[in-house]
From TrEMBL:
<dbReference type="InterPro" id="IPR031807">
    <property type="entry name" value="HicB-like"/>
</dbReference>
<feature type="domain" description="HicB-like antitoxin of toxin-antitoxin system">
    <location>
        <begin position="6"/>
        <end position="72"/>
    </location>
</feature>
<dbReference type="Pfam" id="PF15970">
    <property type="entry name" value="HicB-like_2"/>
</dbReference>
<dbReference type="InterPro" id="IPR010982">
    <property type="entry name" value="Lambda_DNA-bd_dom_sf"/>
</dbReference>
<protein>
    <submittedName>
        <fullName>Type II toxin-antitoxin system HicB family antitoxin</fullName>
    </submittedName>
</protein>
<dbReference type="InterPro" id="IPR035069">
    <property type="entry name" value="TTHA1013/TTHA0281-like"/>
</dbReference>
Amino acid sequence: MLNYPDANGTYLVGFPDFPEANSVGDTTDEALAEAVACLRTAVEMYMEDRRAVPLPSAAAAGEHTVALPALETAKVLLWNEMMARKLRKADLARLLGVHQPQVDRLFDLHHSSKLDFVEQAASALGRRLTVELT
């Protein structure tokens, strides 16, 4: 949610799904760019705490939205599936027949994981990753 300039002329960004996350910018574009970094940090905090990451709620009409890049979104969905099944990274590593550091990198939002490895992990959990161009 982008709030228009405050008394100091800065744009404030808040996230209905992440009440602990807020960012600012001097312009709308800067505020929205900072919001993506803020969103990534909030997601990383949830992962560090071994909590499921909230999925985005519907935006109100005219409301600005930001999203993580597609690969990061796929990682979050995979993470949430693991949390729903009460699995640990070590459990996923065993299912995939790989070493734990490979799974650690899989959930590192700054690591450019290969999409086929994300698909393989989803398959190991009985799920299928689909991609849509809109």
